[in-house]
Amino acid sequence: MEILSNPKTDPLVEIVVDREGLQIMMNAAQSAITQANEWNTGDEYDTDVTPYHEMYNSLKELYDRFYQETKD
Questions:
Q1: Are 59 and 30 in contact (CB under 8 A)?
Q2: Residues 6+ apart with CB under 8 A from 29
Q3: What are the φ/ψ torsions at residue 15 (nearest 5 degrees)?
Q4: pTM of the complete model
Q5: How far apart are CA 36 and CA 49, in angstroms?
Q6: Closest Cα partner for 23 from 54, 59, 50, 58?
Q7: How far apart are CA 34 and CA 29, in angstroms?
Q8: Residue range 10-65, pLDDT digits in tens
Q9: Angle (deg, nearest 10), helices 19-39 and 50-66
Q10: Which of 6, 21, 24, 59 is in Cβ range 3.0-4.6 Å of 17 for a Cys bridge?
Q11: Distances from the Cα of 54 to the Cα of 6, 32, 44, 63, 70, angstroms
Q12: Cβ(27)–Cβ(14) below 8 Å
C-alpha cells in the first residue's frame, strides 16, 4: 500500500458511454435515491442518500455539457 502526501489526480478507471448509457446511469442513481427514501424511516438504520445525489448531479452535469437538450 502506498500513501502519498500528493496523490495522483489521474482517475483509476475511465468509463466511456454514449448518450443512452449516460441516461441509464442517471436513471439508476435516481432509482437508488427513490428506493432508499422508501425504506428510510427516520431511525439510525437509514441509508445516507447524499452519495447518490452527488453521483446523479455529476452525471447530469456531464449530460448537460455534452448533450445540450433543446426544450420545445
A1: no
A2: 52, 55, 56, 59
A3: -115, 130
A4: 0.70
A5: 7
A6: 59
A7: 9
A8: 777 888 889 999 999 999 999 999 999 998 888 888 889 999 999 999 999 999 98
A9: 160
A10: 21
A11: 24, 12, 22, 14, 24
A12: no
Number of Cβ atoms within 10 Å of the Cβ of 5:
4
Tally DSSP H helices, then E strands, for the chain: 2, 0
- Asked if pLDDT for residue 71 goes beyond 60, the answer is no
Upper half-sphere CA count for residue 21 (Cβ side, 13 Å) = 4
How far apart, in whole angstroms, are the C-alpha atoms of residue 54 and residue 50? 6
Q: How many residues are recorded in the chain?
A: 72
Cell numbers for 59:
452525471
| Residue 52 and residue 39 in contact, taking contact as beta carbons nearer than 8 Å | no
**Contact criterion met (CB below 8 Å) for 55 and 36:** no
